[in-house]
Structures are given as C-alpha cells and as structure tokens.
C-alpha cells in the first residue's frame, strides 16, 4: 500500500488486512516513537468527527509526525474552490490527505487530482478505517476472524458496507438485519458475495433481527439516522422500532458474544444503556483501537510496516 490511495476496503487483500492488524497490535504495544517525524498528514473534513479527528491527530503525534486539520467551514469543496484545485494545492503541503466527505464521488475525484496518497475517512458509501479498527478489535477479543459470525442490526449504511466487505474478505460470516427499504447497497452486496465465495464465508440478509443475532459471536449496531439524514429521523425511528439491541436480543447470541458500536450512539434508540455499559460491550476499546489501526495504516502508506524498533520507546 506504500504510496497508494485507500478509498475502499476493496483496495485491500486479505493479506493486507491481516498485516495491518498485526502491525496495529505491535504498535499498540510499542507506544510512542518517531518513524514519521518528517511526514505531514492533512485532515480535510466536510463532516465533523470526534473520534476520527482525535485518532488521526494522536496517531501522527505518537509517531512523531505532524497533522493539519481543516474544518468543514474552511473546506468548501466545490464551492469556495474546486475539488481538483484543493487536491492539487494540498498535495504540495502534505504527504498524505485524509478526506471525510459526503460523497464517494467527491473522494474519488479528489484522489484523481492528488499527487499524494488519499485516505477515505468517511463517505456516504464506505467507512473503511472504521471497519479495519473493528476487525482489529474482533481479532483482539476472539483470537481469529475466519469462521466468526458477525450480526449487524440496523441501516445498510457506510459502516455496514465496509464491514461486510472486510468480513467477506477475511472469511467471517456476516448476517444483516434491517427493515425493508434500508438494505445493503446491491453493488456492495454483489462484490461481497464474490469475496465470500473465495474465502468460504456466508452472507445472510433478513428482516428479522432475532434470526440474525441467534448464535452470533459479534453483535453490531449503528445509529438509525446518520449525519445528513436528520430530516428522516422520525421516519427512521418508526421503521427501526423493532431493531433495538437490548438485553433480550443480545441474549440470543453466543454466551461469550461481544457487542460493538462505532459511536456516537443514540442510547435508548438503536441500543439500550444496559447493553452499551454491559459486560459484553467493547465499544470504548473499539474506539481506542481506531488510533492504533491508523498508526499501522499510516506507516503502511507512508513508509511500509517494517517498524524500526529503535524509533520507539
């Protein structure tokens, strides 16, 4: 991945994913260092984020690099300045650019004009950095990915898309439960089925959350209305009323199942307090792991994952 863009989970091979997980675990144990001391990461965010901004900035800081944050008000992609011009300008200042934007098309246009590697920090179609952090957490908790069963309860959104692709690539079974009209994107599902045929995993879609959760190793949910969908919030609350992850639903999973959520969570809607704060929940470890995964990803893209131990203390 050195010098290449990371716009989708589909940019990765199963070997890439396992190498990033291994690298993240190593770097988590190593702590602070200076391997990226002469590198600059620019964060170009059209949508604000607590976790992604902080995890990127701290990841670069812990590796001795520098990070520049451009807020939504400062961006104006396609408004104050064309996407192409912004890409060409930032390419002269930074070694890598993480873009958080509303549209996958905007991201791909930006990457086409950038002279430095571009990272997808979120679009309407995918959230690949989140999915990698999730796979890291699952591996850390379960000791393996292949053969595990992940049940995703909720909207067929960007998080679900990237998780589905990552699961299919790594041999994880993926069960998806949503009300009619909120399914996984058809193209994403078809691509994932191709990956699953190669890895030996299974993909199952249903409108029954109980069927999806039954016997699962991991239960995952996300907000019913994502940023930018606020006008649909009430409509979505009604549609997803039977899809809340509560103690009763979670009890159908395996006894040692873990609960995951990419945050922020709307407690009392898609998940109850007793699940979020319960013994099965790994949501805050999952959040921290985003930083460790990003350290491995940035090392992979900017210098390769041959980590010089002398650069750490």
Describe it for me?
The protein has two domains: 9-127 and 289-302, Rossmann fold (3-Layer(aba) Sandwich), CATH 3.40.50; 130-286, Aspartate/ornithine carbamoyltransferase (Rossmann fold). It has helices spanning 14-30, 50-62, 72-75, 83-91, 104-113, 128-142, 158-169, 186-199, 209-213, 233-239, 247-250, 273-276, 283-302; strands at 40-45, 66-70, 96-100, 118-122, 149-153, 173-177, 203-206, 218-221, 258-261. A five-stranded parallel β-sheet has the order 7-6-5-8-9. Strands 2-1-3-4 form a four-stranded parallel β-sheet, with helices on both faces. With 313 residues, the chain is of the alpha/beta class. The model has no long low-confidence stretch (mean pLDDT 94). Helix 1 (14-30) packs across helix 6, helix 4 packs across helix 5 (104-113) and helix 7 packs parallel to helix 8.
Strand order of the largest sheet: 7-6-5-8-9
CATH superfamily of the largest domain: Aspartate/ornithine carbamoyltransferase
N-to-C terminal Cα separation, in Å? 26 Å
How do the SSEs run, as a string of H and E?
A: HEHEHHEHEHEHEHEHEHHEHH
Overall body shape: globular
